[in-house]
Amino acid sequence: MTTLRNLPSIEQLLQTETAAHLIARFGRPLTLDSLRQTLDDIRARFKRDPGVGLPSIDLILTQAESALAAWTAQTLHPVINATGVILHTNLGRAPLSAAAIHAMDVVSRGYSNLEFDLETGKRGSRLIHAESILQKLTGAESALVVNNCASAVLLTLSALANKKRVVIARSQLVEIGGGFRVPDVMKQSGAKLVEVGATNKVRLSDYQSALEESAALVMRAHRSNFKIVGFTEEPEFKSIVDASHKADVPVVDDLGSGALYDTAKYGFSHEPTVQESLQAGADVILFSGDKLLGGPQAGIIIGKKELLDKIKKHPLARAVRADKTCLAGLSATLTHYLKDEAEREIPIVKMMSLTLNQVRGRVEAWQNELRQGKIVEGQSTVGGGSLPDESIPTFLLELQVKSAEKFLRALRKNNPPIIARTENDRILLDPRTVLPEQEGALLVGIKNAIKA
Ligand SMILES: *Cc1c(COP(=O)(O)O)cnc(C)c1O
User: Fold this and answer.
1) What is the pLDDT of residue 388?
2) Structure confidence at residue 224 (pLDDT)
3) Cβ neighbours, 10 Å, residue 361
4) pLDDT at 223 (0 to 100)
5) Using CB atoms within 10 A of its CB, is residue 70 exposed (0-12), middle (13-18) or buried (19+)?
């Protein structure tokens, strides 16, 4: 009769060649852990139901290997974005340029002069690394890079408006996404919110009356992810700035997406640019590094030196500071703009600038390779809290499948996972957001999903 005594011991299992391989791959402590756990599971199952018998040594080792593989699997890994949403918030926003990746790679590998002045041999400042390039690019007096734009807003308001009044239009008290609400962040900073105007209409006189009492700041928050249409009114930003300056109150402009170029050039509507905000006279401008800029996750603060000095000195600045890889990747990304090569080098700008003919060429190549699918007209969007509802024409590969849901799941199970769109039980794949180097893997993945 089979009893638990027939179960091999850990020592016996360790003497096998397979166990030696597992130890080489996963290390001894974790391998031991998995063997123990596997034996415990088998014992428990056997006690519940002796009829199941005991597995062979090979089977025990296979079970342990599965546990080891699951424990050490990375949860964060690349996917293929065939949705046509260029800045997909859930898919990691902006893919980086080769130069940005290289810059991040080299500073990660070893030591760097992050806070070391090579001229004097003394302690330096990490703030200088992206600052000079941001100054050159935008003409701003001073600049600071932090963890993301949300922390840029929190830090700026904390440093400049704690316990003081901040005037903002009611129509701008928006939720940016993921529960990030401008009014909540303002309150968190200790600023006293002074809402002006109605949801759809705000006039210059609303700002002017609010400014009759002293205020620390006037703030504009860009409505990155929605539009107010119909019976609406909002003064020109320049006139808000002028009215604020007349009252001696500086203006903070939370631009969010931070375009350094005109998105209208690619067929989208115009998104306010950093340069326009500066020209209008904004004193401090905040924007993300990984939205329309196309760099690593970062929050960029530029503007008047006097105000930036206060922001840099605030204790929160240390808590939200950018790390060396971010500074390296961001500087490399900004250099593309300086050298006027953004369209060629920065993936998201390149995606936006693809012509319809180029997109069509890629879809045709996919269709030829797969010998399936129909080429249809569609729309690519920017996404990522930039340019609400904005889209540009594209060509899609449409696949007719039995169950769209099952097919999408099969695509997601691919290595790397493929994320596609569906509409009325048809699968739609947009080449605009598929990186050229992923095309081979994409086509293999689709073929396998079709077979399955
Ligand atoms: C996206 C956005 C933010 C937040 O930026 P993150 O980089 O995601 O932290 C803040 N303000 C505006 C207007 C935005 O569009």
Assistant:
1) 65
2) 74
3) 13
4) 82
5) exposed
Q: To the nearest whole number, what is the mean pLDDT of the chain?
A: 94
Judged against a pLDDT cut of 70, whether residue 267 lies above it is answered with yes
User: Using a 6 Å CB cutoff, which residues line ligand 1?
Assistant: 148-150, 153, 176, 180, 221-222, 224, 254, 256-257, 288, 299, 385
| Ligand 1 geometric centre to CA of 97 (Å) | 21
Output Rg (C-alpha) for the chain, integer angstroms.
28
167-179 pLDDT tens trace: 999 999 888 767 7
220-233 pLDDT tens trace: 999 876 677 788 88
Q: How far is the CA of 26 from the centre of ligand 1 (A)?
A: 40
Q: List the structure tokens of 313.
A: 């000195």
Please give the model's pTM, rounded to 2 decimal places: 0.93
Measured by CA distance, the residue closest to atom 1 of ligand 1 is 256
C-alpha 389 – ligand 1 centre gap (Å): 17
User: 257 C-alpha vs ligand 1 centroid, how far in Å?
Assistant: 7
Query: What's the gap in Å between 127 CA and the centre of ligand 1?
Result: 21
| Residue 2 in this model has a pLDDT that exceeds 70 | yes
Nearest to 64 by CA among 93, 98, 30: 30
pLDDT exceeds 80 at position 384: no
Dump strand ranges (E) for 307-412.
374-383, 386-400
Peptide bond preceding 416 in cis form (omega within 30 of 0): yes
State which ligand 1 atom lies nearest to the alpha carbon of 254: 13
DSSP bridge partners of 273: 259
What domains sit in the chain, N to C, each tagged with a CATH number? 4-72 (no CATH), 80-88+348-451 (3.90.1150.180), 98-345 (3.40.640.10)
Report the nearest-CA residue for atom 2 of ligand 1: 256
